Fold:
Amino acid sequence: MIVKKIWIIMTMVMLAVTMVLYGVGCTAEEAAEDINEEEVGETVAEEPAEEPEEEAAGEPAEEVTINVLFGETEDWHVPEAQIDEFYAMHPNIKVNFTFLSQKEMTEKTRLELASGSSTYDIVYFDDQLSPAYVSAGWLAPLDSYIERDADEVDKDDFFPTAYNSGIENGSLYGLPFYQEAIILYFNSEMFEKYGVDPPATLDEWMEAAAKLTVKDDSGRQLYGTTMRGFKGPGSVTYTVTAFLRAFGTDWLDENYKPVFNNEAGKEAITWYRDILLDYAPPGVSTFKWNECLASFQQGESAMFADSSVFGTWMQDEEQSAIVGKVGYIALPAGPEGSIPSSYVAMHGINSVSENKDAAWEFLKWMNGKTIDPLISTPSRLSSYEIDSVKEKFNIGIEGYKYDDALAAGLETAERPFPAIAEWNEVSSIVSEAIEMILIGEDVDESFDNAAEQVEALLEGAGYYE
Structure:
């Protein structure tokens, strides 16, 4: 079932939209530190990074060790667990894995690259980070490698949105590792007990949240919903983007002018404020995705909107107290429809790596057809034809299955942030404004002040000359 939907999605997306994607995701972008104009200026190489010479593909004459720095997640341990296959293919290439927490990995990667270090050959980034990384000259373009190894890479097997998220200024800098889109999870037991129907629109979501903010039979306080409120880069802005678009606006227009403080933007943030202040757990303004996830999995919150990567986690008895009670639906629609934020995690090659050819062989394998089906949310179409993947996604309650919600989310998802190197600075400004709104400050004043700051920042960066 999901394969058919995936191919429909691919056709619709290729015909209807320009493929340039983001989520979120849900993890690394939250840890990203601001990359300001001064830092980027200091670290750009005097000469632009050159594409690798087209040498014959093959095994290095001598043993080569490449270093990779990954996050401490199940997905990033998959290549390590399967490394013997790679070694059988490339006996002269050894891989040294280092695993850090998500935040530590992102910070260390940025510091290593900014210093011009060649320690790590494989570089993690996402669609929030890629414009700044490319602008700084930290990533090696992969175009000649892709052209040389086109049959092995099989780029048409990737979701177009996932593949194109690695493209900046017409060149490819990364291959997708996993992708996601925001969907809505709901606790079917609570919905049935209190006679509530799953929402299809934002108005229905608000009404459902109100009905489900109750005390249960034991006197425990339950809440109608939860979502991110934390102001860190990429956290609350990742989810808020979806609601800006649902109301018909965005962060910036095509001329890089702020538009989030227009009427539609203020309606969107007012909706977001009202549902969280009235029907979410106390302290939600400080919640990152992990606090929201815990609240939902422990049966405290009836609904949770966030990354689709959590889909299978909901059925893990070691993590969740509501196994078998979770329904999955596409993000409810606003006045302009359902346009969830998306997120793609990618890997590229350090532009100053001394082992680019060996790094490419590992990168190509890590994002190939052996590893992709083992990732939480694969980036390749062919992965969804595999029985084990179909089974993994065929979860949820009747009528509200994970595969349906995932397919619907990927169909309409869009890259959430503008493709500018200054996004982290913009995100810091707007997330500060959102934090103030979530603790009760005036919407007009907060968003108008933020828009003035963003416009001044981008004017100083030369966007309006």
